Amino acid sequence: MHVMILGAAGMIGRKLVERIARAPDVLGTTISKLTLVDAFQPPVPEALRSLSTALTIDLAKVGVADKLVEARPDLIFHLAAIVSGEAEADFDKGYAVNLDGTRALFDAIRHEGLKSAYVPRVVFASSIAVFGTPFPEVIPDEFFSTPLTSYGTQKAIAELLLADYSRRGIFDGIGIRLPTICVRPGAPNKAASGFFSNILREPLAGKPAVLPVSDSVRHWFASPRAAVGFFVHAARIDTAEVGPRRNLTMPGLSALVSEEIEALRRVAGDKAVALIKRESDPVIERIVAGWPTQFDARRASALGFKAETSFDEILQVHIEDELGGRIA
Amino acid sequence: MHVMILGAAGMIGRKLVERIARAPDVLGTTISKLTLVDAFQPPVPEALRSLSTALTIDLAKVGVADKLVEARPDLIFHLAAIVSGEAEADFDKGYAVNLDGTRALFDAIRHEGLKSAYVPRVVFASSIAVFGTPFPEVIPDEFFSTPLTSYGTQKAIAELLLADYSRRGIFDGIGIRLPTICVRPGAPNKAASGFFSNILREPLAGKPAVLPVSDSVRHWFASPRAAVGFFVHAARIDTAEVGPRRNLTMPGLSALVSEEIEALRRVAGDKAVALIKRESDPVIERIVAGWPTQFDARRASALGFKAETSFDEILQVHIEDELGGRIA
Fold it and tell me: What is the pTM for the complete model shown?
């Protein structure tokens, strides 16, 4: 099987590649070829070097999608995107990459299929940003998409295209609406959601972190390991069971900031918790107030997608996957 | 005020123009200029001749939208579309007109606004085809869009763009999800939904009509007059009251085929009803089974949009507007 990963240098992309490197049969079939694509140089794990090609290329450029799809990958993970803040700040760039780049990919598959039979599996990274406030307390699977960002709009449009192209048999697509990923590895970033991870990751490393919102803020989480699990499962799932509604809100953990903090206390003690500095930030508070807090992700759960059920688990994943099993 | 109507030669477009001709203040302000655009020659009523320009032009052609928007219309009705059956049969044409044509219009407005302040009102004709089965018995305003046709997909995407462009202040948009229009004037057509109108219009004219489904089929209706009323109301509404959720399912009448027939009997007697020939058509039955039957269009109703509440009213509208108030 030829597997192509678009967005292979991103956080989830890298972890997906590492997962394949550790367990080459994780996608159900032997991988004969792996094509890693990103606007930034995608890393290639040693174990996969012989069958991998890494391409540093911009999906939004004319002809790029056609060129990539000409090689007829059997399975395409499409994780490439301009992130929310940048898509909001740069109208043209966000639409060019997140909408036109995605459509170019989908149309490249269509044109390839017109030459001779070709129906790859496409697993697409969507987002809970397709939803816009006000919400019911628990958002059901049939709740409508009324995004309040251009990023969310672009993801919602890509979802519609994915469903229509799948319905027409152009490819066999699944859209995965990711929860907020926590604990994000790496340095603190400027994303409005960064603090959810910062207040765990930094104290675990003996460093201070800022909490800009109240302890009673509720949000929707899954670990990076769970996210990779969603993509792997989506690659293997029987899409006949999924039917025409191809975009699925993933299961996640609905938890309070205070639950994050108590889980941190259980694993790393009061000393770690004392490193969290409360500095309320009205701008971030307002942004966060517009985010969904809980879903009833019934369909995805019934289809076998799994996330963590407590912050203790989420912390454990971080300690195992990022800290080699030990905390500072 | 300069008013532009895209799709001015279509059934609703013509009726909207006629409405303006009869009551030039119907849109709230004096009209100084009326631009009528369609791929087919749009008719110009005598009363509007001095202020009208009729253009036969394809919105999907490169540069056309920019050219049209350069004249800075204050109010744009966008009713131009490839219909459902054709968009399903011709993938490229449907996406080119319904998606790319609409986006070209929206982007033309954006580019015009970058030159100097310009924020027109845009009233867009969407459709209940944005919904795909299975449905709850009554579809609420917050039900998700999972279309099962490319036409419905294109309309749902246009809705998302309209909401995002409105949120960004590029224009001030309203999307109008029309019920099935009944009684459609003119000759019977091949649309799967045609029979809903045929079984009333033809017998009223003393002609036979075929009913291909059971009497117990339920569907969602509004008259052409109500549809024009939706567009006129959307042109004048205070969009601050609408908020960021700019796409509205219009109110309508949920009725059985048997209710259509009984209304016909009341107005035209058993002789008219006897002209309806029952010839069950499994293909049409299957298509119709996938359509929504009832909405709780609470938001649009609260915002002042109005439709008929009985088939007697719908028939009365047809008799008044199409038959000069008299039946054969």
Answer: 0.97
